[in-house]
Amino acid sequence: MIVILTALNIEQDAVLEHLVDTTVHEHDKGTLFDVGTIAGHPGHRVAVGVTGAGTTTAAALTERAQAEFSPAVMMFVGIAGGLRGKLDIGDVVVATKVHSYQGGRSEDEEFLVRPRSWELSHRLDQKARRLCRAHAWRDWLPEHARADEPDVAFAPIAAGDVVLDSATSELAHRIRRSFNDAVAVEMEGSGFAHAAALADQVPAVVIRGISDLADGTKASKDRIGGQLIAARNAAAFAIALAVSLEPQPDSTTAASAPQASSLPPIHNTMTVSGNAQVGEQIGVQFNGLPR
Predict the structure, then answer these.
(1) Residue 17: closest CA among 259, 236, 165, 200
(2) Looking at the domain assignment, is residue 265 inside a domain?
(3) CATH number of residue 201's parent domain
(4) Within a domain: 284
């Protein structure tokens, strides 16, 4: 079993596009997971959950998913803002390191950073890099999306409970000064990585598609489908990585698992082509924070 967590419904939908025979698995505290198999790969079962925005809920539901499914691998998949000009909308970042950028000590005249970071496991790093040979992972993209030739970067990212949409704000300067190797910024990776590390060091990876450039143009990028493109590409890479792993037995037995919810399975069809508008994604909020 592999667990894939996302923060937003648009990210979850992108992952579910690759699954078949999905059923709803309800945790006894009410958390819902869609469990299915990867299309064409019946030996690869995946449980998909959505956490909402922020490091705290990501950490809590990562721990919950780990305890419920005892997965061989956990992934957090979704969108991020790019911090480097070389990254284009739709490019994918595999986080070799996740920096929690908010820790520190505030003094009269300065903020002293006290960083905490989590690194990608060597095994997952090696598997992920092989997928970039001849761009093999793009086979999981729709044909029209392959023509855009999205790239993959292996680099650190920064995570915290703030939506960064400025290249000149105090926070932007702090990340640039203290976490200069970060190429993307997002809101859940540090909570996920911390919880995964505490769960007997379960192999975990954060995979992000670039949806905007964290430079004040997020709203306009969202209007032209940046989130949808980024979520689609990140999900395609995550599924390619999942298939590259050895199939694992399903650790959730009939005796230990709660009864499946009567909620219907989710079947989604998401495509972005040409100049399609995605206006319905604008203004989605979680805990008061626009994404």
Answers:
(1) 236
(2) no
(3) 3.40.50.1580
(4) no
Strand-pairing partners, residue 176, are none
- Say how many domains are in the chain: 1
* Token pair for 181: 């190797």
Listed as ranges, residues in the chain with pLDDT below 70 are 248-291
Q: What is the pLDDT of residue 200?
A: 84
Distance, in Å, from the CA atom of 228 to the CA atom of 273, rounded to the nearest integer, reads: 11
**Full residue range of the structural domain in which residue 182 is found:** 2-246
* Dihedral angle over CA of 85, 160, 241, 152, nearest 10: 0
3 state SS for the chain: CEEEEECCHHHHHHHHCCEEEEEEEECCCCCEEEEEEECCEEEEEEEEEECCCCHHHHHHHHHHHHHHHCCCEEEEEEEEEECCCCCCCCCEEEEEEEEECCCEEECCCCEEECCEEEECCHHHHHHHHHCCHHHHHHHHCCHHHHCCCCCEEEEEEEECCCCCCCCCCHHHHHHHHHCCCCCEEECCHHHHHHHHHHCCCCCEEEEEEEEECCCCCHHHHHHCCHHHHHHHHHHHHHHHHHHHCCCCCCCCCCCCCCCCCCCCCCCCCCCCCCCCCCHHHCCCEECCEEC
| pLDDT tens, position by position, 67-113 | 999 999 999 999 999 998 889 999 999 999 999 998 888 888 888 88
Residues in the chain: 291
pTM of the model: 0.84
Q: What token pair was written down for 180? A: 């200069």
Q: Are the CB atoms for 212 and 80 separated by under 8 Å?
A: no
In a domain, 80, yes or no: yes
Residue type, 138: R
